[in-house]
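Reviewers of the previous submission asked for a worked example of the structure-prediction workflow described in the proposal, so we include one complete record here. The input consisted solely of the amino acid sequence. No template or homolog information was supplied to the procedure at any stage.
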Amino acid sequence: MNTKDKDIIRKVAQLYKKYGIKSITMDDVAHELGISKKTLYEHFSDKMHLVNAVVEHEVIFNDLRLNEQKKDSENALQELLKIFRVHLQLLKEYNPSLEFDLKKYYPEIYNRLNRIKREKIWETTLNNLIKGKREGFYRKELNEEIITKLTVLRIENISESDLFSQEEIYSHEFSKEMFLYHLHGILTPMGIEYLNKNLEQLKLAK
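From that input alone, the workflow returned the following structure tokens.
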């Protein structure tokens, strides 16, 4: 992928996050980028091609962000806290209409994205649990396979419930409470001590 393609994808990603996918036409994209529609089609053959490229870019970009947190963490618990900070940042950028448009108008892309998300959540959660048990931050008797499945289940299905509004589900407070609820179920006394010392530092406390 050349530099121009990447530049278009980055700018279109911001448009989709702000306005959703359905409402942004190829004419809108060309106008916003200050290029002709012909030039746009030289880079992306149609809207499906462009949407797919934007989704792939977001997957790769978010994966890099998460890997950075893992690489610079001193232990499994700090890694998890840093990953949660990335999650909070993604929440700020989240637009429900983007996901709705993907699901309704681009189901193949939507389903592939969900498969990738599940694989990433599964891998990250399982590896983190194994590492945290080894380091003594997580309970040695916990079953990491079950906890991983529960984590994936919770993330994938929480939005389907009518117990919470969409505003609540995608709020900072909701995410923090769910995260702390999860942590207190897996932490050892050493893990709880570390958590309490780092809540404020990692901007999890209000």
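The first helix runs from residue 3 to 19. We consider this example representative of the routine output the project will generate in years two and three.
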